[in-house]
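We treat protein structure as text, and this decision shapes the records that our systems exchange. The remainder of this section carries one protein's record, kept here as part of the documentation:
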Amino acid sequence: QVQLVESGGGLVQPGGSLRLSCAASGTIIWINAMGWYRQPPGKERELVAVITNGGITNYADSVKGRFTISRDNAKNTVYLQMTSLQPEDTADYYCNAKGVRRDNSDWDPELWGQGTLVTVSS
């Protein structure tokens, strides 16, 4: 069974940095795209950043210049390096994978992680 396991969330002061990691476990041939979404308290889930298998990235306007998404295809892992964090960045962050091809040639169209909480506060 393929699962997404997130790590790296926690408490950080405004202006600080944090790096999130998400690894897809199981025997996987490839993943078309991986990304990060977040859901602030009382708000809807929103896209933070995505990256394709070929390295094409897309960011939400609110995080451009502050966050950097990257992936290691060999490790089936995606990262989100967050800098200049502000209280508005406080949210549950969810890892997402689309177009997951498994070892038996089956496909998972979309997978979600359980989420990791990022709290930005002094």
Q: What stands out?
A: The two ends are 40 Å apart (CA to CA).
